[in-house]
Design brief:
The complex is a heterodimer.
Chain A lengths: L1 E3 L1 H5 L3 H13 L4 E3 L5 H14 L8 E5 L8 H5 L9 E5 L3 E6 L4 E5 L4
Parallel strand pairs in A: 1-2
Antiparallel strand pairs in A: 2-4, 3-4, 5-6
Chain B lengths: L1 H17 L3 E8 L6 H12 L18 E10 L2 E9 L9 H5 L5 H21 L5 E7 L7 H13 L3 E6 L8 H7 L5 E3 L8 H12 L1
Parallel strand pairs in B: 1-3, 1-4, 4-5, 5-6
Antiparallel strand pairs in B: 2-3
The chains are: A alpha+beta, B alpha/beta.
């Protein structure tokens, strides 16, 4: 499992984040992003995942995050950055399964050696 | 050519504004099997006749987006003309074995899986070309799916109108209240697209929301 800090994510472009996530997940790693992805990055990650699905090799990802936070600082609002990504867990679809999720907690089950 | 088509589009928009005619391109989004095509068929049948697509208990029955133009809805004394885009179910994973459990043979299942991945990409591409979204949720299921979270996040980021449709309220385990509690910041209408229950309330909400 790799926990990636918000500082590292802040220095990466969207494409770099998506490539990093997919490369790790395709090798069987679970990735936890401290500051998550923006809604646009989430949708681009799903899009890229679809292009990389291969029969018997990679069936996609399990991704879990909380709804984006609307409240930002005054400066965030001025610069249109009021939607904040939140902690996100991403893993291979055949190894990570969400048991329960609500507004405050995500419970997942990780299978090892599938 | 580009200039004239652009001019014609602007003129059309101007005439629409002057005469109060409202038109919007609305996408029907949601996870597979939430009832998007059933609802699209219901709306089109009620207001213009015909069907948008076939429905099936096998997930990813809709694998190409289908647009139905010029569906005029009249409700609450106002009128809105919709282009309805029925999109393939959004998913983060597609495994052909899931389709084999519904009785498809391996070749059919693999073909369906391939087409389903293309369908998800198509649904995502359509997000760039819409005026609003009806997000269809299965009210018997947990609303906190990543597809729901992602679609809502994208609509909020794009500042486009979104109306949540809590479908399948005819089923005993349906809980539209759970959906409302999960996404309280958005309007929600509970319906049964299959039986037509509460469908007039949905039309009123569409006219209010997108008109």
């Amino acid at each position: 499992m790799d926990l990636i800090s918000g500082e590292k994510l802040a220095k990466m472009t969207s494409m770099e984040k998506i490539r990093l996530i997919l490369d790790k997940v395709k090798t069987g790693k679970i990735v936890v992003l401290e500051s998550g992805l923006t809604p646009d990055e989430e949708v681009r990650l799903i899009e890229m995942t679809m292009t990389e699905i291969r029969v018997d090799e990679f069936s996609g990802i399990e991704i879990e995050s909380y709804p984006s936070k609307k409240e930002g600082s005054f400066l965030d609002k001025i610069f249109g950055r009021s939607l904040k990504g939140r902690m996100t867990v991403i893993g291979p679809a055949n190894q990570l399964r969400t048991i329960e999720k609500d507004q405050y907690q995500i419970s997942t089950k990780v299978s090892v050696g599938d | 050519m580009g200039f004239f088509s652009g001019f014609r589009g602007s003129l059309g928009a101007w005439i629409n504004r002057i005469f109060g005619k409202k038109r919007a391109k609305i996408g029907l989004y949601g996870p597979p099997n939430s009832g998007k095509t059933t609802l699209a068929n219901r709306i089109v049948k009620d207001w213009s006749g015909g069907v948008v697509g076939t429905v099936s208990p096998i997930p990813h029955e809709t694998r190409r987006a289908v647009r139905k133009e010029g569906v005029q809805i009249n409700a609450n004394g106002s009128s809105i003309e919709l282009d309805i885009v029925d999109t393939p179910g959004m998913a983060t994973k597609i495994d052909f074995k899931e389709f084999m459990a519904f009785g498809l043979d391996e070749a059919e299942a693999k073909k369906r899986a391939k087409e389903a991945t293309e369908g998800v990409i198509e649904a995502i591409k359509w997000l760039d070309d819409l005026d609003g979204v009806l997000l269809i949720m299965d009210s018997t299921e947990d609303p906190y799916t990543q597809v729901n979270v992602t679609v809502i996040g994208n609509m909020e980021a794009r500042k486009l109108p979104l109306l949540i449709v809590a479908n399948k309220m005819d089923l005993p385990e349906a809980s539209p209240a759970r959906i409302k509690a999960a996404f309280p910041q958005h309007s929600m209408v509970p319906v049964s697209a299959l039986e037509g229950t509460n469908i007039d309330e949905l039309y009123q909400a569409i006219a209010n929301h997108f008109g």
